[in-house]
Design goal:
Strand order of the largest sheet: 1-2-3-4
Largest sheet: 4 strands, antiparallel
Distance between the termini: 81 Å
Radius of gyration: 23 Å
Number of strands: 13
Helix content: 10-25%
Strand content: 35-45%
Structural class: alpha+beta
Order of helices and strands: HEEEEEEEEEEEEHEH
């Protein structure tokens, strides 16, 4: 009788622990330093239990380590990685303020870190390059980086230019032609 009781207790304990350890696949929870409760559930952002934003489709990558809350000064930013098939995933950035979630921008999904060691957090990147049919040329692959500075998110021109020079061998301020297609550059520029 005692053995049956102990085995039943062990089974109950194992079942409860595994149920407690499981996190729903389509749910995220964050708390800001000023105790704003942010929940992302099935494509909807809730701030302090109020619906703040609804995605047209739930394509959030809930398991991504890039989903996070970043605070800078009094500003609170929510970063969510969204599936961007067939191209690269995107980062949707929201400003969280008094039960509101305002969409700030969309960028190429990347880690949010101090990429250029200037003391500010940056994020962004470039799309996957298309293959150019000639061996001596390639499409210019423009990048776009942003930084969090003094409670605002701004375009990081310096990191964008440095990255483009490293990837393409040159920086083009206007990377698209008149038809909206990437410009073609010589691969010899990339080697120099």
């Amino acid at each position: 009788m005692m053995m049956r009781y102990l085995s039943g207790l062990c089974l109950l304990l194992i079942t409860s622990l595994s149920a407690a350890a499981q996190k729903p696949d389509r749910e995220l929870h964050f708390t800001s330093s000023i105790q704003q409760l942010i929940t992302v559930y099935k494509g909807t952002i809730f701030v302090n239990a109020r619906k703040a934003f609804q995605f047209p489709a739930d394509n959030i990558n809930y398991k991504s380590k890039r989903n996070r809350l970043i605070e800078d000064g009094k500003s609170v930013f929510l970063f969510l990685e969204v599936d961007g098939s067939p191209k690269k995933n995107k980062l949707y950035v929201f400003s969280i303020d008094h039960s509101h979630a305002d969409s700030v921008l969309t960028a190429i999904a990347s880690d949010v870190k101090d990429w250029d060691r200037d003391g500010n957090l940056e994020f962004g990147g470039s799309e996957a390059p298309e293959t150019y049919p000639s061996a001596d040329s390639m499409y210019y692959v423009p990048s776009r980086f942003y930084e969090i500075k003094k409670g605002k998110i701004t375009y990081d021109a310096e990191l964008t230019e440095t990255t483009d020079k490293k990837v393409n061998g040159v920086f083009l301020a206007d990377p698209l032609d008149s038809n909206g297609k990437p410009r073609v550059i010589s691969k010899s520029r990339k080697r120099s």
